[in-house]
Model the fold of this input.
Amino acid sequence: MQVEEETKKLERETERENMEAAIAVNVAKPVIKVAALCGSIRKASFHRGLIHSAIKISKEAINGMEIEYVEIAPLPMLDTDLEVNGTYPPAVEAFRQKILEADSILFASPEYNYSVTGPMECIKSKAFLDHTAPLKNAIDWASRPPNVWADKPAAIISTGGNFGGGRSQYHLRQIGIYIDIHFINKPEFFLNAFEPPTKFDADGNLIDEDAKERLKEVLVSLQAFTRRLLLLQGNN
Done:
């Protein structure tokens, strides 16, 4: 009986400590800051439209989440000769700082040749003609020492034909393993942009209500996962 009472007392103390820690995290980080990266810089890019929709949803329907679109177009192609005395070109330094300051990452990842957009993928598929910014290039710059991706929670959203860009997500998840990005597993977001009903308008804005609801579910999941990781990191 005494052992049972002591166990219950310990459980109550643990629950109280966890609650206090959760409160401390919410006080210290009332807003989850999300850096959103788009793998395409085409003006009417569907992926840019997904990010714009995510930003709008976060403002209108999700308390405690702030999404900032972080441009990757200014980044030079990865070249370690550009690293001087442990510093990087100004555009790279600014980008790395944005990633470092974010609590989590939202990737809008197009699919080219069954993979994410990167230097070789863009050359092979002539994707630069479609104004595609190499997402892999941005990832590689931010992984240079010190790796600013480390321990960041993240989510991926994709659109396109057939599988909705989904194959790029699996490659991106593989990349994330090595650079210590922690992706949410569910819900997944793949969107076939070309099957009825119409998903995007002429300017690339997401207009399909069902897709918007699915996108919101991804954001809510990312927010919850980020808070759990912040809580765990606060306890260590």
User: Anything to note?
Assistant: Residues 2-28 form the longest helix (27 residues). The helical segments are 2-28, 46-61, 90-101, 119-125, 135-143, 166-178, 209-235. The mean pLDDT is 85. The first strand starts at residue 32 and ends at 38.
